[in-house]
Design a protein that fits this description.
four-stranded mixed beta sheet; alpha+beta
Length: 242
């Protein structure tokens, strides 16, 4: 016996949602307008269903689903490229948006994206058999990064993340390692961008680019360096659209 679970997600109107998933490389395999708006998109083994609700508010949505894959890096690259080709930029705030790819504290390598209907899709690949969240580190800057990442991603609260990061970056009694400093600044730039604070985003990116790393440190910070490049590209795209 074989079973399949398929999420059915809400939206106000179907077309913006279908356009978003088409940009990601999905095919619209079913659509109806009556007796109620309903559509299906598919890409490989991923199938998502959507239904329209006239008075639905996407900005107040709590709907979400999880997609597991064996190539989360490949999907992240493909989705970013599709969004860039369709929208002229990769949206990282507002609706729709796509987040950073990173190793989470619960044994998953993942990224989050939110469609125009406000539905959050968590795309992840297991990197550990233990799927429980790890305890927060005791070391000052590792702890700050732990909580800031949780606020920024899992809780989608960039303002809370920025507060934690500013406290860590403002310390004078301790100094982070170069890799920690890079991670703090990249995450701070990310939070600033999502909050619409371009000035702070630019200053954090400039500081991050000035951090000197050894070859070994660059290897351990490869996701953060990749995110730094993405944020710089997004900043240039946003400025070019004005």
């Amino acid at each position: 016996m074989t079973e399949t679970t398929i999420p059915i997600l809400p939206c106000r109107t179907l077309q913006p949602v279908l356009d978003f998933y088409t940009a990601l490389g999905f095919d619209v395999t079913f659509r109806q307008t009556s007796p109620n708006p309903y559509a299906v998109v598919e890409r490989g083994g991923i199938q998502l269903h959507f239904f329209g609700m006239k008075h639905y508010d996407p900005t107040r949505s709590f709907s979400t689903c999880c997609v597991r894959t064996d190539d989360v890096d490949g999907l992240h690259r493909a989705f970013r490229a599709g969004l860039k080709a369709t929208y002229g930029r990769v949206p990282s705030c507002g609706l729709p948006r796509i987040g950073a790819l990173k190793d989470a504290s619960h044994g998953m390598r993942q990224f989050l994206m939110t469609d125009p209907g406000g539905n959050c899709v968590r795309v992840g690949q297991p990197i550990s058999e233990d799927q429980h969240h790890r305890p927060a580190p005791k070391e000052t800057f590792a702890r700050a990064l732990h909580y800031a990442s949780l606020f920024a991603d899992s809780r989608e609260d960039p303002a809370a993340a920025a507060k934690v990061l500013d406290q860590a970056l403002g310390r004078t009694d301790e100094r982070p390692t170069p890799v920690q400093l890079l991670r703090l600044l990249v995450l701070r730039a990310d939070a600033a961008g999502r909050l619409g604070d371009e000035e702070r985003a630019i200053s954090a990116l400039s500081e991050a680019m000035a951090v000197h790393l050894t070859a070994g440190e660059r290897d351990s910070a490869r996701d953060d360096l990749a995110r730094l490049e993405e944020l710089l590209e997004e900043l240039l795209d946003d400025q070019g659209m004005r």
